[in-house]
Fold each of these.
Amino acid sequence: MSKNSSHSRAQWGSHFGFLMAAVGSAIGLGNLWRFPYLVGSYGGAVFVILYLVLLLIIGVPLMLTEITIGQYGKTDPYGSYQRISPRISGFGSMALLCGFLILCYYGTIGGWVTYYSMVYLFSLFGGAGIPEGKAVDIFMEMISRPGIAISWHLVFMLSCIIIVLGGLDKGTERANKVMMPALFIILLVLAFVSMSFKGATAGLDFYLKPDFSKMSLSVAGEALGQVFFSLSLGMGAMLTYGSYLKADQSAKRNSVLIPSFDTMAALLAGFVIFPAVFAVGMEPTSGAGLVFVTLPEVFNKLPAGNLIGFLFFVTVFFAAVSSAISLLEVVVAYFIDQKKTPRKKATLSVGVIAALLGILPALSQGNGPLAKATISSLFGSPEWMSSIRLLNLAAFDLLDYITGRIMLPLGGLALCITGGWIMGKEKLLSIITKDGERPFKLAGVYFFIVKYIAPIAILIVFIQALSGG
Ligand code: PHE
């Protein structure tokens, strides 16, 4: 944690490498799976507008704050907060725990995506793919059969472990430098294909023409939660990536670039999904199943549908892996920096434990009769399944709720308290501007948001969400 030890600490090989890794962390299932289904469920364009507004006034300033805390701390979240003030090292512990918990359940969906990529890949070589009318069954079978749910979850986690084992520049940076540009190219191609279908304009209307009667505090709350999740804010990922950034690289510029790329990916996902969904006359409101159930049926109705399906799910796979490696890196960085654990040992232990714990949420999604029957045939007792249902929520939903609704907003609040109240205006701004060397026209507005606006907005949404909104 001392200045000396930071010399031997890993750093990004290039600025582009950092940017791609941070963009890789931000762009993930949140953009390609969660954003479209929230848009679909919360009234289309209204959600998009609220999301964009909150992203601009809260997401971007807090991104700058989080990267700055990391760049200043030059170490993992725990050490960075501690360096600012030992009183707030608990913020770091909370971030670590939150990152770890998200990683545990991220692998569930990561596994589904890996499975779908494979199904579509094999369909290009004569496999059945996802035949018409069968998307629901295939989805149910995947989440209900422990063999499928567990093994693909493990394959996904293994891919992440291998990349993080490779180290910061040879693993994470190199992988993202390939995956992120590929992701944008594929999304762009798919968006053009989707918008060229007959009947696509109904989808564009839904996506772009707001119906303001659908606006509410609860929709705003959902949008703010999505801003945090999508930008990987509030749980130490951007802090950790920022800590590998050299002091002379501008956090300010990155704090605009990362959300811009992230938003482009989310918006593009909408341009891929909604025109296609409407063109084949389906509904966009199927919630979490939109990507896994509705889309495959859409692909079935399209020319070269299997190829489109394969490209789509490979893209989602890239996005998910690049986010999961940032979650793993947060906890790995803690062990490397605080406990002096070698990277290999830290990555293997954290990765394997997260993968094993992740089996619970991976299994918890299949609770239908098919799941029970399969589980009883494999393990004898269908009842043990209920032991992974806590508080009547499936392990997956529980983790999603605790992290998304409680820990991420609290993590955001921690950023506001640290930047706005503990570091204070002078210190925070002098780090961002490098003692006035770099111009920062909006410094006053930025600080006012961090100190007052963002924490108040987060508190309102937080209390509203806890009271069941
Ligand atoms: N931002 C990622 C996504 O959109 C999720 C994530 C959250 C990754 C927090 C890292 C940290 O999917």
Amino acid sequence: MIDACSLDSKRLLTLQEALDNIKANISAITDTEILSLQNALGRVLAADIYSPINLPFDRNAAMDGYAYASADSNPEQDFTLTLAGTSWAGKPFTGQLQPGQCIRIFTGAVVPPEADSVIMQEHVTAAGQNIQFPVNSKPLQNIRKAGEDIQQAELLCKVGRKLSTYDIGLLAAAGVAEVKVLRQVKIAFFSTGDELTSLGQPLVSGKIYDSNRYTLGGLLTDPAYRAIDLGVIPDDPQQLEQQFTKSAQSYDVIISTGGASVGDADYVKDILARCDNVNFWKLAIKPGKPMAFGNINGCHFFGLPGNPVAVVVTFRQLVAPALRELSGTNEVKKLRLKATATSPLKKSPGRQEFLRGICSQNDNGELLVTSAGGQGSHILSSMSRSNCFIVLPAECSGIQAGDIVTIEPYELFL
Ligand code: AMP
Ligand code: MG
């Protein structure tokens, strides 16, 4: 492990340096499992999937109407063909179409080989078995060719693909019933701090409710992860050490919040300092300065700050990319956009800042952003109100109304 910056060092680590270090120390899990398609949403493919069939499977009608051979049509005047039968979706016409004949056909029904055109039913006049086609009937229309969507043996989804709803639909259409995926990333998370009270307990002075575990539980909700909430560990070195040792045996990743800075009760740091493979970083970001990253007996460890908003920022910027890497997906979903600030934003040069913002769109489609309120790292009301981070570079010394800023929408990020 590159010891990019130790706790005692004065130098602050940039987000990019931290991310590079994390990525250099993480590789995707390799264990696989076979899942039925309906259980595979959000899972990461372990192998390429090729189509076993042509899609569409048959040449079929794109409209309800009448199928006929273009050789029977007359571009100059109207013409009449004799009805020879019907091709239903799921029940093809079994006869042979003779010259001068047409068949009734419905959307999705197989077009007989003798026909190459379908006319919409609204365009013909049917009188018993005689179907009258109007002048200027356009032949060679309304037919879906076999394989025009996907050819047999064509690549449907690539290894590393995190299966979307639409991938699942595509695979189902191609008849793929089971998929080989990478197993879920096993993640344990817990909070540390003597002040933490669990929900359902009355709050006494000096204590606070533990919110970080709930936020983390939400951030870790992803079919590619199996995240287990280990509760609250008090500021007790023995209990903490026990938890780390035990969890490292059964999980790929441990995430803790709190206790990673330099306070007297920050035992996380003391315990992990005994491991060779754990770095303590002071990051050049706000909020979220102190953080630990390393490896305990093969298990990746992220010691996030205790302050609730710092948890969100460090998770989204550093832990989420690491988990994606571990899960085996090759997709990057981080979307940053430009928006016009509608109010001034305070900032001192030095650290990259993540401000909670509310992004909206005006009638011209332009993105606007305003501060969501208080920006202290303990202020959860603005976190809840906000829908994006406003990302201000380290050197920025404040924003005026009308300035263009970078935003990172929450919803499109993970
Ligand atoms: P620490 O990093 O342990 O020094 O904590 C920094 C701040 O975050 C303190 O004000 C803690 O009370 C608060 N904090 C730590 N853990 C949590 C938690 N799980 N939920 C809410 N606040 C927390
Ligand atoms: Mg603490």
